[in-house]
Amino acid sequence: MLETRLDLDRIRAARRVIDPIFLNTPMYRCDALGRRLGCTVSIKLETANPVRSFKARGTELVSSLLTEQDRTAVVCASAGNLGQALAWSGRRRGLRVTVVASRRAPAAKLERIRALGAELMVVDGDFEMAREQAVSIAQARGVRLVEDSLDVETCEGAATIGLELASAEDADDAVLVRESSIIAGVRMLWEHTGLVVEPSAALGVAAVLEDPGRFAGRHVVTVICGGNVDPDAYRGWISA
């Protein structure tokens, strides 16, 4: 049996503490995109929420557990999406949230973190330098450091998407895609669905583009996991 840190009972319990605004996200069949890709395509829209990504499913769980423990503050390093989600969830529960980000992160994402009330600290280096600063802050202040994907709560929060797709077939494989296919997927989602998405949200479409024969005639659900984009970069992607 495959070993995993995730626990199905905890994932089910997570749904009870995640704000309903992030749950049961829209899913609909997109015929225009399906015709273009040669398969049935359904869109699972994780961007129609206050932080424009699925990340709040995890930060809602983290923040809920922290308040149960009478903790008052939390810190993370973020390129944008996690920081926005943690700021939103923390503000809702009265937590002091500090986000450390690289100056290279998209300006729009940094501005939204500030707008959500978090303390934003910007470093001149890359994400790893931001993470090192976040670790130092957590140690100095004695507060919880949240690390996306490393902390099981962020994973189990995200896994609630899987509960909503429970009728889908189990995944038993991985697909590697090229950057050019991802950008093509971003462009196709704009052209055929009108959705503005960041590259990670186009991975499902990119996978079909890489190997159309593999998916021909099948039903593919692609999760639109984020829509926080840098406007200048996005214009370049859709005009490429």
Automatic annotation (TrEMBL):
Q: Where is the signal peptide?
A: none
Question: Do you know which SUPFAM superfamilies this protein is assigned to?
Answer: Tryptophan synthase beta subunit-like PLP-dependent enzymes
Q: Which InterPro entries match?
A: Ser/Thr_Dehydratase, TrpB-like_PALP, TrpB-like_PALP_sf
Per its record, how is this protein called by name? Threonine/serine dehydratase
Lyase listed as a keyword: yes
Which residues are in coiled coils? none
Instruction: Please name the Gene3D superfamilies in this protein's record.
Output: 3.40.50.1100
**What are the alphabetically sorted keywords of the record?**
Lyase, Pyridoxal phosphate
Which cofactors, by name? pyridoxal 5'-phosphate
Does Lyase appear among the keywords? yes
PANTHER family to which the protein is assigned, alphabetical: THREONINE DEHYDRATASE, THREONINE DEHYDRATASE, MITOCHONDRIAL-RELATED
Cite the Tryptophan synthase beta chain-like PALP domain residue spans from the record.
22-167, 169-226
